[in-house]
Amino acid sequence: MGVVRRGAVRREQLFDALVELLLAEGFSHLTLDDVAARLRCSKRTLYALAGSKEQLVRAAVVHFFRGATERVEAALAARSDPAERLAAYLRAVATELAPASARFFDDVAAFPPAAEVYERNTRAAAARVQQLVADGVAAGAFRDVHTGFVADVVTATMVRIQQRQVAASTGLDDAAAYAHLAELLLRGLARRG
Q: How far is residue 184's CA from residue 19's CA, in Å, rounded to a whole number?
């Protein structure tokens, strides 16, 4: 393994550890000294990843969502039935969000660069759900529904989840909210027998 490859592996490992730390504890209360101590590295190593705490947090949030998106799409690829694909997608989103603490989501919502990353990923996920619903309707697996309306409702709900409004009004964490959204959506789209 070359020096460049080892460096890329080490960088990936640091981002994985950083994401794990931030998901568990949030980040607003952590200093770069705290992060370096927790990751057992130097501040210089952290500065090699990003130029400031803010840039490091944003990069970690991007890293989290990039990995989550890859795993969600992999779960989806394993299914061919439209209802199973939609359920797999939303359940995989819930699974990916499950390790994230309420403090992490509160910190993301309060930090515009991270909130923008979460919002962008939420809108991409909503577009993916619209595509999955449209595919299911076209295949005859779902009732004939107005997919634009379904997508609008799903998008609004996903944005409310992302902005912590669902947690505030229901007490559900983001992962549980996605699981309930999946159940509601699948039951609403089911063909009447």
A: 30
